[in-house]
Amino acid sequence: MEQYPKTKLNKVIRGAKRASYNKEEINKILDDAFLCHVGYVWQNNAIVIPTAYGRQGDTIYIHGSLKNRMITNLLDAGSASISVTHLDGLVLARSAFHHSANYRSVNVFGKVRKVVDPIEKMKALECILNHMVPGHWDNIRQPNDKEFNATLVMAINIDTASAKVRAEGVVDEKEDHGLPIWAGVVPIRQIASDPVSDTDLQDGIEIPDAVLKYVKNKS
Questions:
Q1: pLDDT (tens digit, 9 = 90+) per residue, 66-104?
Q2: Pseudo-torsion of CA 126, 130, 134, 137, nearest 10°?
Q3: Distance CA 91, CA 109 (A)
Q4: Buried b (16+ CB within 10 A) or exposed e, 159-186
Q5: Could you tell me the residue ranges of all domains in the chain?
Q6: DSSP state for residue 22 in the 8-state scheme
Q7: Whole-model pTM?
Q8: Is-contact 83 37, C-beta < 8 A?
Q9: Highest taxon of the source (predicted)?
Q10: Three-state secondary structure call for residue 31
């Protein structure tokens, strides 16, 4: 199993027993999400922004407008960190102290670069869209020159990363087990409902197979 080495950046300190540096597990968590949170500093203020992303190998792609403050600041800084989290359950304990959550999370650290090659840039936009709904790129009108030139794409190399996962039940103090208080886990998952077609669709246009497959897999 290929693993990321532990560094000062990616080493999990709190709850280290739940940490993983396995690349396959980290990529699976990244691929199961579509939104990440990106941290950056602007005028000495720490800011965190949610944004869409796509992964291709050891590269994360994000995009925005040419003057996107987050991306331009990260390009100036030369490096970035992104975070992805899946909430899998609420852990409701007998005591307030031991309430928790089941989750899968990843933190990625790496160098950044502006994507200038037009072929890679278009492939990056395809990667981001297909990360949302696999295969949907082939169903849409692709960016025209004006849209393409107005879009800024940044690549984040996954230099190192770590995952942290909690997937267990309630952990209460033994002396609390006799209390007349309910405890347990409420599982949570994100599901997709039936697609709602736009009211301005031309007659005869059907929902693409890629969308139907996505809904079926997420139901």
A1: 999 999 999 999 999 999 999 999 999 999 999 999 999
A2: -50
A3: 29
A4: ebbbbbbbeeebebeeeeeeeeeebebe
A5: 16-190
A6: B
A7: 0.93
A8: yes
A9: Bacteria
A10: helix
